[in-house]
């Protein structure tokens, strides 16, 4: 075994310590919840949070952008087998069979393709997977009488906002096919809520999810060259990439580099549990931003990561990336008002946890 890899005993001790520390924090009604796309980055963290709260959770995923190793890690974390269905949302009969075979009180829908550049090259694949897959899911839910949905939306629905912080009343506009799928699905869900008075949905508009679970067992593991900033920085720190390319140094921002609202994935996972509680408790649908409300520049994030990891992050300022905007960060006030949710982790915690995950798993899940 490589010295950087985890030993089995280490994994088990961490998992036991973690589940003991989090036992008994369940707050709302216990539910049977299906996580579509639950083997992915945000889905697996949400699995961990929901299990800690005492919900019965199952995952459906086709592993198009995730690894079966996630299920092993979640089993280690939760100390119990992970109910799993290998399934593609484009396969409607398979979805209907799942809903006929199992009962669910709610669905959280993470399953989507998410690479902005790829969506410009293959828009039809994005429409088929993200919109077609969602329609199949909504139909299967309807057939089985499942009427609670949490949907992974994105700050991308705001495009290039006229002002920051962005609140939920801001004009919606999309700049690429991926963003269009998020906006269209939000609209489909809105129409469904209007047509079925008992259907309740939460559209959660994530800003920039980063970080990893404190155990270091699960985290973000992109295929190929990372598109996003934090996984790229992690791979530079661990020696898989030579240096960071900073896309643009002449934006009208604090230091000329792009500003975003990075949010710890564990805070984000908790918001899903809180949104489900809200659907039950308030018996209303909602659309909310999930961010910290704080903008961080590319160089600020790279510096914070360097301090957290003790590794230098060499970088070079290059041309702006087409389609990027200067500055986007959330007004998260509505989520606080409706859900009682606010982000707890700061940028140092995000970097520390991302680094723990990357240094314990230098090759991601592939390292075993
Ligand atoms: P991810 O790629 O890690 O997870 C998505 C999961 O869905 C993967 O496990 C993939 O295998 C699965 N999947 C995709 N298409 C499927 C299909 N047709 N059938 C079954 N499974 C399928 O992505 P993530 O970062 O965890 O994002 C989760 C959701 O949040 C996505 O909808 C994404 O668009 C949205 N989102 C992500 C970000 C971000 O920066 N990570 C930001 C805003 C919104
Ligand atoms: N950046 C670099 N170098 C890199 C990668 C990114 O300088 O190698 C910069 C970008 O130019 C931007 C910032 O880092 O200023 C953040 O870029 P990301 O790609 O990490 O994130 P984006 O805000 O561009 O987009 C992400 C998701 C979108 C989602 C959006 C809002 O990729 O799908 O957050 O949730 F819509």
UniProtKB/TrEMBL annotation:
<dbReference type="GO" id="GO:0005829">
    <property type="term" value="C:cytosol"/>
</dbReference>
<keyword id="KW-0520">NAD</keyword>
<dbReference type="GO" id="GO:0006012">
    <property type="term" value="P:galactose metabolic process"/>
</dbReference>
<dbReference type="Pfam" id="PF16363">
    <property type="entry name" value="GDP_Man_Dehyd"/>
</dbReference>
<comment type="similarity">
    <text>Belongs to the NAD(P)-dependent epimerase/dehydratase family.</text>
</comment>
<dbReference type="InterPro" id="IPR016040">
    <property type="entry name" value="NAD(P)-bd_dom"/>
</dbReference>
<protein>
    <recommendedName>
        <fullName>UDP-glucose 4-epimerase</fullName>
        <ecNumber>5.1.3.2</ecNumber>
    </recommendedName>
</protein>
<keyword id="KW-0413">Isomerase</keyword>
<comment type="subunit">
    <text>Homodimer.</text>
</comment>
<feature type="domain" description="NAD(P)-binding">
    <location>
        <begin position="34"/>
        <end position="353"/>
    </location>
</feature>
<dbReference type="GO" id="GO:0003978">
    <property type="term" value="F:UDP-glucose 4-epimerase activity"/>
</dbReference>
<dbReference type="InterPro" id="IPR005886">
    <property type="entry name" value="UDP_G4E"/>
</dbReference>
<keyword id="KW-0119">Carbohydrate metabolism</keyword>
<dbReference type="InterPro" id="IPR036291">
    <property type="entry name" value="NAD(P)-bd_dom_sf"/>
</dbReference>
<comment type="pathway">
    <text>Carbohydrate metabolism; galactose metabolism.</text>
</comment>
């Amino acid at each position: 075994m490589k010295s950087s890899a985890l030993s089995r005993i280490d994994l088990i001790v961490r998992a036991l310590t973690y589940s003991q520390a989090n036992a008994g924090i369940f707050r709302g009604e216990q539910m049977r919840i299906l996580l579509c796309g639950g083997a992915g980055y945000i889905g697996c963290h949400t699995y961990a949070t929901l299990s800690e709260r005492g919900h019965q959770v199952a995952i459906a995923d086709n592993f198009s952008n995730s690894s079966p190793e996630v299920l092993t890690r979640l089993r280690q974390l939760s100390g119990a087998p992970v109910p799993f269905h290998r399934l593609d949302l484009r396969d409607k009969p398979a979805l209907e069979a799942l809903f006929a075979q199992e009962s669910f009180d709610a669905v959280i829908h993470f399953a989507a393709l998410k690479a902005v550049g790829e969506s410009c090259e293959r828009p039809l694949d994005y429409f088929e997977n993200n919109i077609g897959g969602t329609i199949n899911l909504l139909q299967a839910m309807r057939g089985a009488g499942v009427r609670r949905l949490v949907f992974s939306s994105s700050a991308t629905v705001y495009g290039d906002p006229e002002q920051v912080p962005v609140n939920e009343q801001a004009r919606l506009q999309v700049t690429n096919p991926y963003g269009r799928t998020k906006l269209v699905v939000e609209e489909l869900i809105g129409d469904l809520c209007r047509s079925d008075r008992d259907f309740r949905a939460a559209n959660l508009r994530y800003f920039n999810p980063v970080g990893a679970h404190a155990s270091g067992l699960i985290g973000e593991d992109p295929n190929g060259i990372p598109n996003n900033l934090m996984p790229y920085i992690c791979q530079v720190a661990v020696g898989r990439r030579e240096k960071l390319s900073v896309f643009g140094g002449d934006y009208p921002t604090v230091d000329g580099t792009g500003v975003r609202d990075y949010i710890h994935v564990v805070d984000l996972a908790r918001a899903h549990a809180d949104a489900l509680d809200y659907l039950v408790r308030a018996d209303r649908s909602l659309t909310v931003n999930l961010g910290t409300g704080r903008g961080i520049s590319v160089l600020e994030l790279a510096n914070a990561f360097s301090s957290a990891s003790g590794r230098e992050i060499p970088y070079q300022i290059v041309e702006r990336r087409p389609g990027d905007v200067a500055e986007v960060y959330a007004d998260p006030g509505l989520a606080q008002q409706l859900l009682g949710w606010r982000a707890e982790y700061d940028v140092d915690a995000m970097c520390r946890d991302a680094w723990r995950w990357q240094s314990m798993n230098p090759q991601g899940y592939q390292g075993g």
